[in-house]
Amino acid sequence: MLVKHEVDGNKGGFYAIEEGKKIGEMTYSAAGPGKIIIDHTEVDPEEKGKGIGHVLLMKAVEYARDNNVKILPLCPFAKASFDRDVTIREVLF
Q1: Are 26 and 37 contacting, i.e. CB atoms less than 8 angstroms apart?
Q2: Closest to 57 (Cα-Cα) out of 17, 88, 86
Q3: Quick count: other Cβ atoms within 10 Å of Cβ 27?
Q4: 76 strand-pairing partners
Q5: Is-contact 27 40, C-beta < 8 A?
Q6: How many angstroms separate the CA atoms of 64 and 55, rounded?
Q7: 46-90 residue pLDDT tens
Q8: What is the pLDDT of residue 8?
Q9: Looking at residue 54, what is its pLDDT?
Q10: DSSP 51
Q11: Which of 32, 49, 57, 74 has the most CB atoms in a 10 Å sphere around its CB?
Q12: What percent of the chain has pLDDT over 90?
């Protein structure tokens, strides 16, 4: 599985691609300098339960760490993931 990060103006996303097909996405919007809001996570129904959402979240956390960006998780999946995993909370605002 390949995860691509795309940015278009003040919006962006992390996209899980397998065999040329998008199987998952986590999108965000810029919320000012150095801040993003994760607003949506979706995984292809045939791919659910394989940890794709978690892989996408970890790519977002890696991006935040590498670029000194803070994350506000409005998406229920992302929020629940941050609530469960204390090791990634330093990127929250």
Answers
A1: no
A2: 88
A3: 20
A4: none
A5: yes
A6: 14
A7: 999 999 999 999 999 999 999 999 999 999 999 999 999 999 999
A8: 97
A9: 97
A10: S
A11: 57
A12: 100
DSSP strand pairing (70-73 vs 35-43): parallel
How far apart CA 17 and CA 69 sit, in angstroms, is: 24
Q: How is residue 92 annotated by DSSP?
A: B
- The neighbouring-strand residues paired with 37 are 29, 72
List all residues 6 or more positions away from 35 whose beta carbon is below 8 Å from its beta carbon. 69, 70, 71, 72, 93
d(CA 92, CA 75): 13
Long-range CB contact pairs, 40-43, < 8 A, 24+: 40/75, 41/75, 41/77, 41/78, 43/16
Could you list the beta-strand ranges (E) of 1-93. Answer: 2-8, 11-18, 21-30, 35-43, 70-73
* Distance, C-alpha 45 to centroid of its chain: 18
In the block, tokens 């229920």 appear at 76
